[in-house]
Amino acid sequence: MITIEQLKDVKERTDALRRYLDVDGKKIQVEEEQLRTQAPGFWDDQKRAEAQMKLVKDLQKWIDGYNEIKTLADELELSFDFYKEELVTEEDVDAAYAKAYEAVEALELKNMLRDEADQMACVLKINSGAGGTESQDWASMLMRMYLRYAETNGYKATIANLQEGDEAGIKTCTINIEGDFAYGYLKGENGVHRLVRVSPYNAQGKRMTSFASVFVTPLVDDSIEVNILPANISWDTFRSGGAGGQNVNKVESGVRLRYQYKDPYTGEEEEILIENTETRDQPKNRENAMRQLRSILYDKELQHRMAEQAKVEAGKKKIEWGSQIRSYVFDDRRVKDHRTNYQTSDVNGVMDGKIEDFIKAYLMEFSSQES
């Protein structure tokens, strides 16, 4: 049975969220923005109209989110009072508390995601490290983990490119994950993921260490201004591999985009290479590849801004992009994040996509340094 202090905690955090989210202000703003949608000729500029509708929808989601936890908090208080009158059981009160507590935690976490990019969908790319079959198998396990996470959280996950391993697993894959705040939640997965286990591919049954890198960028669309120089783009086409019928073998539907990028701040040059085999339609794959290019260029600008902010706030703990971030030690039943020191013994749960606690620990520690 919960205590009166736990009830007070939920009520106080609910009231605090009303202030943090400026719910009253958002209600007024929604009314004002909805009035704009009723103006004559509103749909003459479809792109601008869609952006306006999205703004209204996004504001309303915050209001609805708060209304949900307010309702749950009120129901919790009511059930607490009903228990005193023996109208409900302890289990009923505890169940009401669990629902209210989880909803408050979820909205508090979402409130940490305030950057423009946080609200976007994302591109998640996994590359296997050195080590052949073992690391390629590890990369495929990570791919499954993120696909299960996306499925559990109601995100749409599409595999945009996949290169299978020579014997097992995958060499690389690119996944588009679409849904509210997908990038905000998954941006902390950037970096090297380390696996320690007794390898099924080692005849001596030795303990092996494998690595795979994860790279997450916001999935931007035409509404985001990104400067792409057409003269710097070149295209190749190729036949998509893997299962898929005769069309896959005979038609060059796969596309390879090469973009000669010059960093506007340092002058350094590099070639950005993107492959897309998402569909059997070459023009559609070209479109998807261009979308990924916009995402990469947007992310480069984003990281430049973060680097500039880090110089100003040199006293704060740095976020090391691309460094080893997490170890998965199967024999010891332990998964540990080296940035936050959060760890769990539920290895099977983590590999089945239950990474919310790692995401929360990361955001709790680093979100204030990014805003």
- Give the C-alpha Rg: 24 Å
The total count of helices amounts to 10
Number of strands: 11
Main structural class: alpha+beta
Task: Specify the CATH architecture of the largest domain.
Answer: 2-Layer Sandwich
Uncertain stretches of 5 or more adjacent residues? 243-249, 312-319
Tell me the CATH topology of the largest domain.
Answer: Alpha-Beta Plaits
First-to-last CA distance: 39 Å
Largest sheet: 8 strands, mixed
**Helix content range:** 40-55%
Mean pLDDT: 89
Order of H and E elements: HHHHEHEEHEEEHEEHEEEHH
As for the number of domains, it is 3
Strand order of the largest sheet: 2-3-1-5-4-9-10-11
Query: What is the CATH level 1 assignment of the largest domain?
Result: Alpha Beta
Features:
Alpha-Beta Plaits, 371 residues, 3 domains, eight-stranded mixed sheet, three-stranded antiparallel sheet, single chain, Double Stranded RNA Binding Domain, alpha+beta, Methane Monooxygenase Hydroxylase, Chain G, domain 1
Topology, element by element:
Layout: H1 4-20, H2 23-36, H3 46-84, H4 90-111, E1 121-128, H5 133-152, E2 156-164, E3 170-178, H6 182-186, E4 191-198, E5 207-219, E6 233-238, H7 246-250, E7 254-262, E8 269-276, H8 282-312, E9 324-329, E10 334-337, E11 343-344, H9 347-351, H10 356-370
Parallel strand pairs: 4-9
Antiparallel strand pairs: 1-3, 1-5, 2-3, 4-5, 6-7, 7-8, 9-10, 10-11
Helix pairs in contact: 1-3, 1-4, 2-3, 3-4
